[in-house]
Predict the 3D structure of the following.
Amino acid sequence: MFVRSTLTGRLMHRLSDEPMITIPFSYCVGGSLSWNDSTYVKRAADDELYSAIEQRAFSYVFGPRQIGKSSLRIRMRHRLTQQGYRCVSLQANQLCSPSKALRFPSASFSQKRQPQALTDQPLDPQEQGVSTLIAALWADLNLAQIAPLRPWLEATASLSPQVRLERFGNDFLVDKLLKTPVVVFIDEVDALLGIPFLASLLQWIGCCDRLRQTEAAYNNLTFVLLGTTTSADLVQSVSALPAASQTTATNGVVTQSLEEKTFDLFTSGCQICIKPFQLIETFSLHQGFEEKIDDPTMPLKAIFRWTHGQPFLTQKICHIASNLIDTLVRPSSQPIVLSSKIVNSWMDSLVRSHIIKNWPTQDTPVHLRAIRDRLIYSPNSKSLLALYKAIYAGNPVLVDDSSLQAELLLTGIVDIVDDHLKITNRIYREVFSIKSPI
């Protein structure tokens, strides 16, 4: 049972006759939010992704860093688990990094949760990706209760990555597991760009999607990809493979190339757009100002004038402002009565002193520096900066779905407003001024 103290504005947790435990409210700056974090802001993307999963549609959530993709995944996984789904969450870098790869287990996962190394010899990147993916699914779906993993991996070692994944699905998922819905989340999929295993992964996802038409069990297997990338980037990465554009003919029937299949996967899939906070959505963020200021919505309105709902910046400024107010207001005192003019003036001063002034040294956790680095270290840096300067100057730039615009959008520095590219918020405009080098 939760109650709110009229003196402190903090949540109090009461268990039976036990003493009350005070749970201070705090904002989360950087990193992913836990499923029950009180500062989580529910957006349209939450319901859109849930609806897509309910319809068993392959879905993908792509966008800039620090806009809440991983927090959405964590929240969605809990929501689905509560409703009887079985969920698997993977970080894509586990599938391509030797230092983070899961290795073959020496026995059954029922003996140990963490797999042990089968050999000290480095694996082929494709083999590593397939084995790691299968090992992770085996562990999270408790397939060790059905059969040990190592014998199966050894028996299928000679198969191609794609055939091996299909064999895994047929041997274990269809007959033994897919009686209840299974959702596989793969986060930070951009880590696989340029790695051949990406093609095998997307090909398997597409194969599972097509098998829905003939195998009813595959209706219970859904994939969700998340990352700082675009579907076009993923298709381009696959198309760069030597055999990606080759078509084959069987009995006179020409089949699609790998590049075409990848393109069709994203075309038929469900794209989830995760947008900045809307002011009306941010009720949960008022808590840090309740019983400190007579109208706790005023600081949020003032913060939005600077952040335009960018999640990381909004949480960070809320955190700074709430802590500063704590130094001025004693818990037992009455809330401060302030006018919107005073709050706006105070917030302007706070943002300039704590965010904008000497921003490279105050940018902790890293946010603004990451945007700068994506701009200046990109192979297309010169063109990106020219496009940004045109937008900064106020020149109308219509969205044209070009790769250059897509790359600039992934930095987060611009957003789409009424079919035009606009600078995302006032902080970015002042920090990344064309009057000073980025």
